[in-house]
Amino acid sequence: SPVLRAALALLLAALAAGQPRPSVVLVACDSMDGRLTFYPGNQTVDLPSINFMKRYGTVFLNAYTNSPICCPSRAAMWSGLFTHLTESWNNFKGLDPDYMTWMDLMEKHGYHTQKYGKLDYTSGHHSVSNRVEAWTRDVDFLLRQEGRPMVNLTGDRKHVRVMEADWRNTDKAVNWIKEGAINLTQPFVLYLGLNLPHPYPSPYAGENFGASTFLTSPYWLEKVTYEAIKIPKWSSLSEMHPVDYYSSYTKNCTGEFTQQEVRNIRAFYYAMCAETDAMLGEIISALRDTGLLMKTIVIFTADHGELAMEHRQFYKMSMYEGSSHVPLLVMGPGVKEQQQVPHLVSLVDIYPTMLDIARIPVSQNLSGYSLLLLLRGKAENKVQTRQPRPSWVMSEFHGCNVNASAYMLRTGKWKYISYSDGQSILPQLFDLSTDPDELTNVAIKFPVVIHSLDKILRSIVNYPKVSSSVQEYNKRQFISWRQSLGQNYSNVIAHLRWHQDWLKDPKKFESAIDKWL
C-alpha cells in the first residue's frame, strides 16, 4: 500500500543516514576522447583500468564537457554552473580563487580533502599568447597560432614513465592513500589532476610554445591496435564551415597531411591515453591494497576530448564529438556494476553528485543534476528529485582558435550548434544516429527541428546577449593589456605564437587590430 511504501522509504533513508559516508577519489585527466571508453572506440587501444571500472561500476555513454577548453571546462566542473554564469570565457578567465567549490563544501561538512596535480579552474593562468588569441578572435586576420601537429617517439620498450610530472603526482597520491588516508577516522575526498593525454609543447612554435607534439614511447605504442585506427574523412577546404576553416587554419592543419601522418598522430594520441589509464590503475591498486576500495567511490573523467585530426583539426575548442565528448566512469559502494548509462550528462553534474554522496543539501541553483540515482541503476522519474533531469546537455565556447562564440545543444539524436548572435553565421545540425562522424550538416534540410532546438537553447541561455558581452570583454581586456605594454607593444605582439605569420607583415596585422578596436 502507499502507506507501507512511504514507511519503507523512510526506514531506508534512516538506515542510509546511519551508514558511514563513503570516501571519494576523482581522477581528472586532460584531453581524453570519451568515445574510447566504450565500443567501437575501445577497439583501438588497451585501457585495462578503464575496463576494470566498467566491470565493477558504471560508464556513461553520453557525457559532455560544458566548454571544450581547459580552464572554462574545469570552472564548470568545480562550480556546478554553466560557463556563461561564471563568465569563464577563456583559459585566462576562470573562477575567483575564493570560489566555494564542492571540495570546499565537503571539507566544511567533515571530509578530509587532498589535491594533487593539475587544477586549472581559477583566473590568471596560461600563456600571454593564449589569452591574446582569444581576445583578438574577431579581428579580420588569419594567423597560424599553433605548431603543425607532429609525433615524437622517445625511449625504448622499457620506457614506461614518459610524462614524468604526472607520474610524480600519481606517486604522491598513491603514497598519501597508503600513509595518510588509511589512518583517517573521517571520510576523505582525493583529487588527482593529470596533464595527459594533452599534447606536449612544440618549442619551435614561439612564446610559451604551442602544444602540438604527440609524444610517447614504444612501450605505450604497443598497446595500440594500428589496424583499428580510423582515418577520418575531411571536407575540402572550400566546403568547410567558416568557423571550422578558421579553427583548422589557426591550428596549422590546412596544409597537406599524408594518411600515414594522420594515422601516426592518432596512434600516438591513443598511446598517451594508455599511459593515462596506467596512472588511474595505480590509484585503484593503492585503494585495493589498503582495503579502502570497497568503501570509496572512484570517478574518472576529463575536461574535454581531443580531435586527433578529425575534421582536419587537432586539440579541442570544437563541439564535434572528439572534442566535446568526455569519459565518465564511476565505481564504488552503491554503484551498479557493469552498467552503461545512455542518459545525456555533463561535467556540471559532478558538483551536485559530490554533495549527494556526502549527504550535503544543495543550497543554490546549480546547472547540474546529481548522478547518484543513475549510478544506483534507478529510474529518475520514479523517485522524487528537486526537478527532473532535462533531456539535453549544453556546451559553449568563447576562447581561442574559434572566431565566434559557439553553443551546442545535444538532445535525442540531434546535435545543434549555433554561433554568435544566431543569425550572422550558419548553424550546424547533425543527426548522430545516422551520421556519428558529423560529416553532413543538415541544418537547411530541417528548419522545423532547428527552430525547436534553438528555442530550447534560448530558454537556457540568451546566447546573442552572451556573445555580445564576450565581444565587449575581449576588447576591454585587449586595450588594457596593450596599454600596460607601452612602447613594447609592437615587439611583444609580434613574437607570440603567431610570430611566423605576423612577422611577414607586422603593419598589416597591427592596423587590422586598430580597425577592430
From TrEMBL:
SUPFAM superfamilies this protein is in? Alkaline phosphatase-like
The entry's localization annotation reads: Lysosome; Secreted
List, in alphabetical order, the Gene Ontology terms for molecular function in this entry.
arylsulfatase activity; glucuronate-2-sulfatase activity; metal ion binding
Which reaction equation describes what this protein catalyses? Hydrolysis of the 2-sulfate groups of the 2-O-sulfo-D-glucuronate residues of chondroitin sulfate, heparin and heparitin sulfate; an aryl sulfate + H2O = a phenol + sulfate + H(+)
* Origin: domain of life: Eukaryota
Query: What is the stated purpose of this protein?
Result: Catalyzes the hydrolysis of pseudosubstrates such as p-nitrocatechol sulfate and p-nitrophenyl sulfate. Catalyzes the hydrolysis of the 2-sulfate groups of the 2-O-sulfo-D-glucuronate residues of chondroitin sulfate, heparin and heparitin sulfate. Acts selectively on 2-sulfoglucuronate and lacks activity against 2-sulfoiduronate.
Name of protein: Arylsulfatase K
Q: Which organism is it from?
A: Piaya cayana (Common squirrel cuckoo)
